[in-house]
């Protein structure tokens, strides 16, 4: 009987996506509505009324990271993305760690987004006049209630991810159309009619209270942009791999526009105390300040749609990354199984949904949704900075020959990705140090620095342990030295000269 890995070529997934589908998946992963509705308040707790400049400053290194992803994808389109590129350009250990961090950070993201989704639905119930159910008072800030409802939604979106990426992308496109229409309408109106005057101080980073506050604000903003690379996780299902790069860049610039619009609008409408004091209900409060019911409920509906879409889009790229790792036998054969009916890694999709639900249950240790969001976002921000930086360094290493091709080409291919990587490494390292130095004991609280540091540390250390298992127990060929990487420069397209390729 053939082993699950077998000797035949690994299964392939159906090529059914275009650039618009890639944008839908990436935009749903970045979840602009959720980031604006919740993330702006969390970020304002660190930087006050400096959201626009912090969002803009965080975009610059992320753009450098995106350029690295785009160039690497042109050379080697692979759903493993950073896992493959870092492993071949820097080190298999660092490559595995890049893939692993992407997996565990997304599972943590899914678990807290499960609670956010449940909280949004509870808020909608409250807006509809349903404050109690069976004698139980419904509380949108209760992690227990929000998680219970969110898990039901997680089960539903996992099912849609199983039956096909195309159907999932189609659903996400319609959700995005509604979300963005609501965001543009309310934020545009708030930008014009908000009672608080514009201030040039909003664009002055030097008046942020401290370096630590600036670093935390930048890291939280990096988290808001996180997810644009999801399109590269489905590049083997996109008909033209170049469309994955186009979709990633389109998504990133769209997010910049939405985040700047949201930042200015929120600061025009809300005071700093109102920004930081409403947690998961920030977008609801913003809508109530601008309109009466039922129009005021539209931002909350958009937030709910955004949370649902990000749950679904979080499942899809994670399973694709694990599919790529399973092809190399760094993970088990479960992740390599493709449904003959749907052409998707159905078993792995269900397994990821179950893992996210399990972590969501563990998150009940943090009773308030707002505190859960803060703890999760800080932890994910640190590890995302790490795997973004490793991928950019892989690009700088692989294309270092471009330094001989002129200043402009060398800057695009090597210098900008390397500087972006160093910036993110320094940012994550500095914030990790401030977490360590800010506490003298441990407790499960987002106000405790050691707890905030423990979460990303567990993500990284578990990756080292999993890599050791893959190398010495699974004996994965991924760790065998001497396997030549692909050519360090992409093959020119038909009819192109080396200078224009």
TrEMBL record:
The gene is plaP_2. Signal peptide: none annotated. One of its GO terms (molecular function) is transmembrane transporter activity. It comes from Streptomyces hundungensis. PANTHER family: AMINO ACID TRANSPORTER-RELATED, MEMBRANE PROTEIN. This is Low-affinity putrescine importer PlaP. The chain crosses the membrane at residues 49-69, 90-112, 143-162, 174-192, 212-228, 249-266, 296-319, 346-366, 372-393, 414-437, 449-470. One of its GO terms (cellular component) is plasma membrane. It comes from the Bacteria. It is found in: Cell membrane. InterPro entries: AA/rel_permease1, APC_superfamily. It is a multi-pass membrane protein.
């Amino acid at each position: 009987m053939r082993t699950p890995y077998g000797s035949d070529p690994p299964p392939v997934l159906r090529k059914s996506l275009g650039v618009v589908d890639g944008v839908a998946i990436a935009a749903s992963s970045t979840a602009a509505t959720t980031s604006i509705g919740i993330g702006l308040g969390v970020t304002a707790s660190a930087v006050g009324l400096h959201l626009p400049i912090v969002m803009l400053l965080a975009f610059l290194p992320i753009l450098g990271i995106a350029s690295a992803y785009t160039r690497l994808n042109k050379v080697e389109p692979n759903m493993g993305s950073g896992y493959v590129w870092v492993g071949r350009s820097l080190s298999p250990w660092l490559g595995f760690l890049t893939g692993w961090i992407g997996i565990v950070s997304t599972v943590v993201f899914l678990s807290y987004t499960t609670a956010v989704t449940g909280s949004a639905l509870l808020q909608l119930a409250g807006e509809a006049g349903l404050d109690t159910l069976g004698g139980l008072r419904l509380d949108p800030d209760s992690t227990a209630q929000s998680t219970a409802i969110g898990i039901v939604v997680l089960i539903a979106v996992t099912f849609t991810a199983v039956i096909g990426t195309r159907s999932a992308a189609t659903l996400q496109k319609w959700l995005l159309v509604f979300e963005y229409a609501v965001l543009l309408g309310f934020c545009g109106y708030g930008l014009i009619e908000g009672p608080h005057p514009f201030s040039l101080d909003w664009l002055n980073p030097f008046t942020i209270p401290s370096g630590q506050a600036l670093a935390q604000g930048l890291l939280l903003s990096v988290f808001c942009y996180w997810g644009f690379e999801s399109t590269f996780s489905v590049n083997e299902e996109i008909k033209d791999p170049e469309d994955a790069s186009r979709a990633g860049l389109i998504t990133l610039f769209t997010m910049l526009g939405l985040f700047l619009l949201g930042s200015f609008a929120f600061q025009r409408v809300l005071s700093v105390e109102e920004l930081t004091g409403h947690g998961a209900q920030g977008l609801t409060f913003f809508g109530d300040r601008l309109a009466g019911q039922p129009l005021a409920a539209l931002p909350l509906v958009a937030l709910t749609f955004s949370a649902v879409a990000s749950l679904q889009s979080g499942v899809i790229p994670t399973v694709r990354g694990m599919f790529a790792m399973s092809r190399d036998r760094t993970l088990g054969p479960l992740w390599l199984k493709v449904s003959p009916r749907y052409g998707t890694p159905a078993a792995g999709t269900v397994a990821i949904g179950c893992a996210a639900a399990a972590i969501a249950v563990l998150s009940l240790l943090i009773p308030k949704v707002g505190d859960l969001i803060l703890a999760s976002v800080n932890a994910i921000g640190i590890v995302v900075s790490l795997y973004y930086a490793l991928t950019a360094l892989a690009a700088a290493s692989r294309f270092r020959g471009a330094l001989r091709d002129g200043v402009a080409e060398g800057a695009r291919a090597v210098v900008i990705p390397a500087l972006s990587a160093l910036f993110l490494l320094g940012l994550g390292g500095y914030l990790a140090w401030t977490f360590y130095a800010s506490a003298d004991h441990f407790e499960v609280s987002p106000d405790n620095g050691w707890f905030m540091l423990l979460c990303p540390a567990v993500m990284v250390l578990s990756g080292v342990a999993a890599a050791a298992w893959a190398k010495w127990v699974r004996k994965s060929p991924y760790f065998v030295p001497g396997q030549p990487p692909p050519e360090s420069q992409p093959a020119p397209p038909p009819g192109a000269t080396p200078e224009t390729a």
